[in-house]
Amino acid sequence: MNLKYLPLLFLTIFFINVNAQSPKNETLFSVDDEPVYVSEFIRVYNKNLDLVQDESQKDVDEYLKLFTNYKIKLKEAKALELDKKPTYIRELANYKKQLAKNYITDTKVTEALIKEAYERVSYDVKASHILIKLSQDASPADTLSAYNSIVDYRNRALKEGFENVRKAVHNGQTIYGEDLGYFTGFKMVYKFESVAFNTPVGEISQPFRTNFGYHIVFVQDKRKSRGERTVAHIMLIDKDNEAPVEKAEDKIKDIYKKIQQGESFENLAKQFSDDTNSAPNGGKLSPFSSGQLNSIEFEDVAFGLEKSGDISAPFKTSFGWHIVKLIDKKPIAPFEDMKPELEQMVTRDSRSKLIDEALYSKLYNKYKIGDNKMVLKYFETILNDSIFSHTWKLPVDFQGDKPLVKIGNKQLYFKDFGDYLLKYQRGLASKSSYANVIDKAYKTYLNNNLVEYQEDNLEFEDEEFANIVSEYRDGLLLFDLMQSTIWSIGSTDSLGLQSYYNSHKANYFYPERLDAVVASSNSEKTIKKVANLLEENKSINDIKSIINSNDKVDIIFTVDTLEVGHQSLPKNFEAKKGVSKIYKYHDAFTVVKVNSVIPQEPKTFEQSKGAVISDYQAYKEEEWLNELHKKYTLKINDDALMRVKSQLKKK
């Protein structure tokens, strides 16, 4: 299941926590004699009050309906044994493992890395590098050869210039010499990032190794982060079927001239921008930082504007033609504001290995793990070279029943580690000493078991963790139930969908539309002249040649099939064929020539299928819930409910 749908699901069910309650609690209601307690209802009601968008759901009776429906659905899910499905069990286990990381990591190390990350994202580094590729399991001879070569390149670069050497040695296969441009924190692997940020400008780093091989880095520049920009834009999209008069490039240039003539950027955006999300707000976009947009060209123009109110010349990106206006510029956000985001990034980044090492150290101390070198000597004695060809087997007289290490209440034996070694050998790619093989294998084995034991017991040690897991457990179960019962209807019940559409055709239609020409000018005199020319059936090209001069744009046209209420049409526009009266709209004057009025018309089944599926699912869910209420007996303790209402009312 895709995890991205779960937050929406949880909002729908209000993050209901169904941990078992004390028998001493008063029962609010029961589903087939399974009690649900007052304390649980009050807790989830208060916890999720701020998440409720519909004011009616804040009413206790309305909330109780949602809550009882939720409990009945869970009852059905368990009756169908959805909680025993392997996919459900696997998904829950994965979530618990993921969530547990937030509870068992070393917070001091994490905090230090977050602060360092903030310092890194506060700057951009411009650098180039030379890389000699080298695999992680390269032989000692190959490793030494690569190291000696990178040292030689550094010495040459100090004498000949880094860029000269970089270009000379690059072959794109085993040696890479690349100009990386500007980058900030989290854009490179952690070790590479650290070297780049710690190397002074104008200097070449010492050789260092990452998972890719040996590098040297030349730092060309460091600058403060460009921070955050808020801009507005007018965007026109090139349309394949557009008439020559409506070419986006020509139209954006006409709009730019009108801006230079003093017309309002915001009003022009409202009238003409093809970005329907931002156009109603005068073209204003949400604030963004460097690297957040999918267009380097757009970012460069936006960050190139210096003062609020500055406006760019028209330019093109892969999305269309733009004019950008700078509204606000801010430096990088304060640390506390960025901290939650940085924490997530740190735990997903290669620097998380430092967090892992700190965690293992903490668990070693928590579970009092001692030195096991003498025990491991035994495993060295039973190895042979077949382990490097992945064919090694445990000896016949293997002492599998001997205790190896104890973690909390869990005892591990020689057999457990022996079985692990049988699998571990498959990953060995090069020879090394038996002691080295055992040492690495045991560390990985022990670390994995320490974390696994901590995760398995976290629900008994941390109440908050237990509550969140319980919420997810039942939310995931409900998701599976709804998916199999209701949400799959769109792909499984084609006859039902068609029948529902046939019974509700009146709900699915195209609104009234206009085949129209909209003319806009900031001059009432001009628009009156245009209205007369439209009455004379003059072409748009003829009108533009009459009205607009080479260096001044007095009129802009929009030619399209428009829904009544389109942004280009004045408010309260009277939809009828012919040339309209003149309207004052967005601080400009507008006249509309309606060539034809396309009346409201019904949509076919295919044209309205998305809406039909949504409506049909809602209809089937209501039917299904009625059946569940007949299947399961719901008993509400009215006296307890009265006390709940009284208690919540006081708050």
Automatic annotation (TrEMBL):
Residues 1-20 form the signal peptide. Residues 122-221, 226-328 form the PpiC domain. One of its GO terms (molecular function) is peptidyl-prolyl cis-trans isomerase activity. The keyword Nucleotide-binding does not apply. It comes from the Bacteria. Keywords: Isomerase, Rotamase, Signal. PROSITE patterns: PPIC_PPIASE_1, PPIC_PPIASE_2. This is Peptidylprolyl isomerase. It comes from Siansivirga zeaxanthinifaciens CC-SAMT-1.
